[in-house]
Amino acid sequence: MTLKQLQVFLAIADTRSFSKGGEAVSLAQSTASQHIRSLEDELGARLFDRSISHVTMTEAGRLFYEYAARICSQCGEAIAAVRRFQGLEQATLRVGASSIPATCLIPDLLGGFCDARPGVRLEVVQGDTREIIRLLQDEAVELAVVGGRFDIDSIDYQEVGTERLILVALSTRFPESVVTVQQLQEIPLLLREPGSGTRLAVDGALQKGGLDLHSLRVVAQLGSSEALRRGVLSGAGCAFMSALAVDRELADGTLKAMDIAGIEINRSFYLAWRRGRSLSPAAEVFMETVRQREPH
Fold first, then answer.
1. DSSP letter string over the chain?
2. pLDDT in tens, 75-118
3. What domains does the chain contain, in order, with CATH numbers?
């Protein structure tokens, strides 16, 4: 059974004529008749009753019609979907992103990306780095932009930017500009959850600086950069954050950055994708857009 046979069958059923049905699918009447004979032989049932004046479907033909129509419709949808995929028309790209990429990096790129590829609908799924990599492994997203990396065999990474994380404080509450490691242990801290890229970078840098993480005075553990920002503004304590998340508050003086003597915290941003998988044209364009992003 072939798709062409199903198309011929539907055309003849709709026109009630072998000649008109064949013409509808660009076949001679004799060729259309051969397709129907082959189909009837395979099914072991007559699909049409033929007479000199007209053609009608048998009961078997009526039963078969519904399934043939459904198959041809789905084949047409599948072909159209692949053509849209190849042509970047009406395509949907799902990208996973951790906090800062989702709220700062990707929105900054959105205007240029949408202008260049108006047929692509971008869906961004936000979570911490661990959650986003898990979504990538489960193929719930095609690409990811994250602030940390986990060594997983099935995932490839490419560094696409770096930034310095700063200790942010409410200007009116903490007048200091530089604190020592010892003073840091006395400051009330708001931290991100362990699976976030920010937390991975902070923990690594502090441990490298000889600080026992259990000695920190952690007053809250929060699940996003926005939650950290609001917590610091409320006066609850200080937080290690990306300057991108608090650029307005730093500019107007509401918040200030505090240096830690002898410790600098840097982290990288990564593009991540499933190893060995072919990416859609939309994903390749998005990756190139991220790679060409101008650093702030």
1. --HHHHHHHHHHHHHT-HHHHHHHTT--HHHHHHHHHHHHHHHTS--EEE-SS-EEE-HHHHHHHHHHHHHHHHHHHHHHHHHHHHHTSSEEEEEEE-HHIIIIIHHHHHHHHHHH-TTEEEEEEE--HHHHHHHHHTTS-SEEEESS----TTEEEEEEEEEEEEEEEETTT---SEE-HHHHTTS-EEEE-TTSHHHHHHHHHHHHTT--GGGS-EEEEESSHHHHHHHHHTTS-EEEEEGGGGHHHHHHTSEEEEEETTB-EEEEEEEEEETTPPPPHHHHHHHHHHHTPPP-
2. 877 876 776 666 555 678 899 999 889 988 899 888 888 877 77
3. 3-87 (1.10.10.10), 93-157+273-291 (3.40.190.10), 160-268 (3.40.190.290)
